[in-house]
Specification:
Structural class: alpha/beta
Largest sheet: 7 strands, mixed
CATH topology of the largest domain: Rossmann fold
Number of strands: 16
CATH architecture of the largest domain: 3-Layer(aba) Sandwich
Order of helices and strands: EHEHEHEHEHEHEEEHEEHHEHEHEEEH
């Protein structure tokens, strides 16, 4: 099968900055930036890049994720980030969203989508989601909603700070009841093919061992293909991951040949790997019990975007354990030299590709 983003436009670092200057520098561009209003030190980076180029043609919608009993120091950091963004973007709107309902059900993704449903997108030529300071349970649903609902002619962009060090420094205290990300159940609860061969693709992350064990028990997969980042900034990181999860890999009966290695800084690498696996299993199990693939992107934000794209395209279920709280293991400050990664997901570029199929992007 053809893949939707086989020729996806991906830029990073200087190329992203050049794209922002050239593309968003056009007078007719009006951009809505959707980002996080949280404590993450990466929350202001994209706004700092966009504001000088767009000026009053830039609007911001900040989603403030509210969780029970937040750490006071992190709340203070969030307030400072909001102040910085509001200074950079005069047309800034902050919308709080509850991540948990009173009965402890996870509702953050649904709440975020409901906010967007009430926001008028018609004045904008472009909508950009900055995933740097948003949780996966929020990013995944809003990206899917935008791809399905924006009108023709509105470009959808996805931006993230490629900063694996901060991903490590910020650790989540996971809820002990895993579940599906809002909008990403796929056919997991369908009566069709209840005996289908179920393959779980978890992203291995140090510190998430207990969470992944709970997710494994929730899914009950027949096979497991763990995702390990490689190449990485730290060449020893993959070996440490394999060693850290040695007991789990043995308990899950993981064949070493089934480990998926995906480039730490290129989400398209993981996206294409997942699509290839899905296509191969569809052929193998055609006419028999069938196949189901379940994703659990709990690691770096950059890699998780590759899983997001694959899940959107092939309607793969996504299972995770929502964070009830966060803690910072170090006084992290997002360095200005970390590159911003840009994915152009939908809009003008792909309409032009359809008109010129031989053009290379």
């Amino acid at each position: 099968m053809n893949s939707r983003w086989e020729r996806c436009i991906l830029q990073k670092g200087d190329d992203t900055e050049r794209f922002i200057r050239d593309f968003f520098g056009e007078d007719q561009r009006r951009l809505l930036l959707i980002g996080g209003a949280g404590f993450d030190p990466r929350a202001t980076r994209v706004a700092e890049m966009l504001s000088p180029v767009l000026g009053d043609r830039l609007h911001a919608l900040l989603l403030r994720e509210e969780r029970p009993d937040p750490d006071a120091s992190l709340v203070g950091k969030a307030e400072k980030n909001i102040e910085v963004i509001a200074t950079l973007i005069s047309a800034t709107t902050v919308r709080p969203i509850q991540i948990f309902a009173q009965d402890e059900a996870v509702i953050g993704g649904r709440e975020a989508v409901n906010v967007l449903k009430l926001y008028d997108l018609r004045p904008f030529t472009d909508v950009a989601v900055d995933a740097s300071a948003l949780s996966r349970g929020v990013v995944f649903p809003i990206v899917r909603f935008l791809l399905q609902s924006v009108g023709k002619g509105i470009n959808v962009h996805l931006l993230v700070s490629d900063d694996p060090g901060t991903d490590i420094d910020i650790s989540a205290i996971a809820w002990d009841q895993p579940g599906y990300v809002h909008g990403f159940k796929g056919d997991s609860e369908s009566a069709n093919n209840p005996d289908a061969a179920k393959l779980w693709l978890p992203q291995l992350v140090i510190g998430e061992r207990t969470s992944l064990e709970r997710i494994h028990a929730f899914i009950e997969p027949h096979d497991v293909c763990p995702i390990v980042p490689f190449p990485t900034q730290d060449p020893k990181a993959p070996d440490r991951l394999i060693e850290h999860f040695a007991d789990q890999l043995q308990a899950w009966a993981v064949d070493p040949r089934n480990v998926i290695y995906a480039h730490e800084s290129n989400p398209l690498d993981l996206y294409r790997a997942i699509i290839r696996i899905g296509d191969a299993r569809r052929e193998i199990f055609a006419g028999t019990i069938g196949s189901k693939i379940v994703l659990s992107p709990v690691g770096s934000k950059v890699l998780s975007l590759g899983a997001l794209m694959a899940a959107v395209e092939r309607d793969f279920p996504v299972v995770y354990a929502e964070a009830v709280a966060y803690k910072m293991t170090a006084p992290t400050v997002c360095r200005s030299d970390f590159p911003i990664l840009h994915l152009w997901l939908q809009g003008q570029a792909y309409e032009e590709q359809a008109e010129s199929p031989n053009e290379t992007t």
